[in-house]
Each structure stands twice: as structure tokens, then as C-alpha cells.
Amino acid sequence: MDRGRVKSYRRRSSIVSQKLQVTDRSFMEIDEAHSIGKNHGGCILGIRTRLKDVSNGLANSKELVKVLNRVCGLDDKHPSSMSLVSALYAELDRTGIHVDQLIREQRSNHEGIEHLMRRFAEQKLVWKRSERDRIHDTVACIAEELEMEKKLRRGTERLNKKLGKELADTAVALSKAMKEVESENRAKEILEQVCDELARGIGEERATVEELKRELAKAHEEMEKEREMLQFADVLREERVQMKLSEAKYHFEEKNAVVEKLRNELEAYLGTKLNEENVHGSLNLQRIRELKAYLKKIDFGSGQMVKQVADKLNVMDGEECEAVDSADSDLHPIDLNMDNNDMCYKWSYARRNIAEGGSNKFPIEKDSKERKSLSETKYLASQAEAHDYEDEIKRYRSVKS
């Protein structure tokens, strides 16, 4: 802002100086023209006086020629002199005529010059008036510009005072900032010292940390190995259970086939006996019917017994699952899918990170394919089923634990 004002002030001052120079030049031109006019008038007056002197000299020469002619007329002895005098007289007349003509031309030129001088004087007065008005306007403009420059100077002075105050405030703020920077530098040095001490402490404890990391990695590897071993043990246990289940299923189906075969044979036999007894009498009819009902009871009692055992296992499974923590082990209940026709069942489980425990073997008793009596068949089937169910319950509890 100050620079702009200074530039405008310089520009205005240069304009004013240029105007003053133009005015001075105009005044100098006026003076030169006036002096030239005076000199020209003086030259004209000098020429006029000289021409008058020439004309006067010619008139005197004519008078002298006349006197000489009269003298020569009295003496007729010199004819050549007479001719010379006449020629001189003629030449003087012609010169006088030329001088008179020059005087007339000079007069006419003098009148034109006077006319031009009058016009020049009039134009000079008009030009002086216009120049005076222009100079007056220029002076008024210069006065206005000077007044404006004064105002600008006052504003600049006020602005300089304001800038001086701001500069003083800035110097105070700078001193405060320097003090703050020095305090921050001291705090930074203290912090660097503390950091160096901490770094030295960390360097001392780095070996301990590395040792702990190695121990942790070793423990992690051992844990991974144990986990893999437990997973492998779970897989082996599951495969063994599946093998035992398939073996039990096979023996159970074999026993069911034998029982079914005996039942069919007994029904056929009882049917023939029933037909024979219808002929002889109804003495043994009641016994045959009781035996048939007993066979039906044996056939369907095994399925009901399997259902009861499955319900009991499900109840025990729910109670034990509520007692076991879910973070330590993930157990799924045994699912028993049973069919009344083939009496087959399947079970599956999944367990993670458990201690390996012992498993009971399934004692499977081999029954002979041929039964001699109905009571022996009933006894063997019921004993095998009860023993299998007890073994299954014991195995389930051992797996749960």
C-alpha cells in the first residue's frame, strides 16, 4: 500500500514538472517571437533610410549632371564629353526610376508587414490569454494534487506509526517465541536424555525378551505337536468306534436273521400243527396260540428295548453336556438312528483337545446258527442285546469324561 502511494506521488510530481517545463518553453517561444519581430522592424527601417539616402544621392547627382551639362554647353569644344554627360544623365534617370520603384515596393511590403504584425499581435494576445487560462488551470490542478499528496502523506504517516507499533509488538512476540523455543529445546534435550536412558534399559532387557520369545515359540511348537497328536488320537478313536459299530451291526443283523429264520420256521410249524389240531381237537390249540403270541412279543420287544436305551442315552447326554465347559471341549451328542426291521444304529461325535482315555471292548458272543429250542434262542438274544447296550453306555460315558 505504501509503495503504491509512493509510486503515485512520484508519477504526479513528474506530471507537474512536465507541465511546468511546457509552460516555460511556451514563454520562451513568445519572447523569441517578440524579439524577432522587433529585429525585423528595425531592419525594415534601416533599409528605408538607406533607400532615402540613395534617392537623395541620385537627386544630387542629377543636379550635378545638369550643372555639368550647362558648363559643357557653354564650351562646345568637347563633343565626347557631351555624349558622356548625356549618357550619365540617362543612367541616373533610370537608376532613380529603379530606386523609386524599390521605395514603392518597400512601402507596400512595409504595409503588409505591419498588417501581419498587427495580426500577430492579436494572435499573441489570444494565445497569451489561453496560455494564462491553461496555466491557471494547471496551477489549480497542481494545488489539488498537492493537497491530495498532503492527505496521502498524513495517511502514510499514520500508517507508518501503526506499522511501527505492529513492528514493536512483533518484536515483543518474537522475543517471547524465542524464549519458548529455548524452553522447548531444553525440554527436548531432557526428553532425549530420558529416551537414551530408556534405550539403554531396553537394550539390556532385549536379551531377556529374546529368550522369552524363544521359549514361547518352543512352547507353541510343543502345543501344536500335542494338538496334532490329540487330533490323530481322536481320528483313531473314531475309526475304532466305527469299526466296532460296524462289527456290532453285522453280528446284530446276523442274530436278527437267525431269529427271523427261527420265527418263520416256528410259524410254519405252528401253522401245520394248528391245522392238525383242528382235526383232533382243541386241547393243544390254546398252547399253540400262546406260543405264537409269545414269539410276536419277542420280535417287537427288542425294538422297544432299543428305543428305551436310546432315550436313556439322550437324557444322559443332555445332562453331561450342560456340565462340561464349552471352552475346554466341543462335544456333540450321540445320534442313534434305529430301524425296527434291521435294528441297526449309527453314532458320531467330535471332540477337541481332550486327554486320551481308555475304551472298553465290545464283547461279542458268537451264537450258533442253529437253535434247538425257543427258550434258548430267547435267552441268548436278550443277553446279547442287554450286554451290547451296557457296553455302549459305558463307552459313551468314557468318551464324555
Automatic annotation (TrEMBL):
InterPro entries: BLT-like. Residues 174-279 form a coiled coil. Keywords: Coiled coil. This is Photosystem I subunit O. It comes from Hibiscus syriacus (Rose of Sharon).
